[in-house]
Amino acid sequence: MASVTSTGSSQSPRTRAGRPYGDPLVPRMLLGRRLRELRERAGLSRLDAGAVVHGSESKITRLELGRSGSRPREVARLLARYGADGDEQDTLLALAEQTTAHAWWHGDGDILPGWVRQYLSAEQAAKLVRTFEARFVPGLLQTEEYARALIRPACPEAEVERRVEFRMRRQRVLRRRPRPLNLWVVLDQQALWWPIGDRAVMGGQIRHIIELCKRPNVTVQIAPFGVGGRVAGDEPLTLVRFPQQGLHDMVYLERADGAGYPVRRAEIERHWHVFNTLVTEAAPPERTPQILAEMLASI
């Protein structure tokens, strides 16, 4: 259970300013999943577990969902109460050390809303991201010019270039070695007709998507106008799948002033069904370059 770097590859834990390298999200999720399994095997409630560490039921819930770091000494108390054997205790305590690492985006945390940070960690650790957008080109597909035109009206001028650079840095995950992120995008046509910047910006953005479609790890489908309103409520939908066995898929529902992360299995399955419906409603991926070329000719 090695630490996960900002590009999703594994490396041995090291420390920086008292904290290990590597984004903490996946270690938190792996640790939380196993702690839940051990607690349930021991026949204890979350309230019982909270009493072991002099904490609340909600503290155990956050720990088991991978939403908070963990103190090794508290994890050790839980493992002893749960009856974990020595080898497993050693493994999980090493994992607990990684849950307090700084996330890969830590240096830019001051410009990132709190609700997006968990997704940004997941995106870099994922093996597959599937996303639907009705209004804008998704961040992983944006050109610098498009990103700049989109960001500039919404933030102070002094932060624009920093935010653009951060968005471009996110996209490295599509080129990482040896296993680039697999990205599947369903894009409502209205997102490409909605003018962001001038004609040159939109033309460059469409050409960029055509080029990205040549990558074996990038799939883009163009959906008819308004399909999101009928199928997905016109709101962005993103599904994240991790390479580690046993981790549930993440659902990320971004909204204007926040985001939701449904965790119940039924909710996750429902959102996968929504995305699969969008896939069937959209034109097949092999038609995407032709559709985009026709749009480009009409700009």
How does this model look, in words?
The protein has 299 residues and is α+β, with helices and mostly antiparallel strands. It folds into two domains: 3-98, lambda repressor-like DNA-binding domains (434 Repressor (Amino-terminal Domain)), CATH 1.10.260.40; 106-298, Endonuclease, Chain A. The protein is built from 13 helices and ten strands. The chain has helices at residues 25-41, 46-52, 57-64, 72-82, 86-98, 114-125, 144-151, 157-170, 190-193, 199-212, 227-231, 265-281, 288-298; strands at residues 3-4, 10-11, 15-16, 19-20, 128-133, 182-188, 218-223, 237-241, 250-255, 258-260. It has a six-stranded mixed β-sheet, sandwiched between helices. Strands 1-2 form a two-stranded antiparallel ribbon. Strands 3-4 form a two-stranded antiparallel ribbon. α1 (25-41) packs antiparallel against α5 (86-98), α4 packs antiparallel against α5 (86-98) and α7 (144-151) packs across α8. The longest helix has 17 residues, at 25-41. The radius of gyration is 21 Å and the shape is elongated. 32% of the residues are buried. Residues 1-18 have low confidence and may be disordered.
Report the mean per-residue pLDDT as an integer: 91
Overall shape:
elongated
Kindly state the number of beta strands: 10
Radius of gyration: 21 Å
Helical segment count = 13
**Poorly predicted runs of 5 or more residues:** 1-18
CATH architecture of the largest domain: 2-Layer Sandwich
End-to-end gap: 50 Å
Order of helices and strands: EEEEHHHHHHEHHEHHEHEEEHH
Briefly note the CATH topology name of the largest domain: Endonuclease, Chain A
Give the biggest sheet.
6 strands, mixed
Estimate the helix proportion, in percent: 40-55%
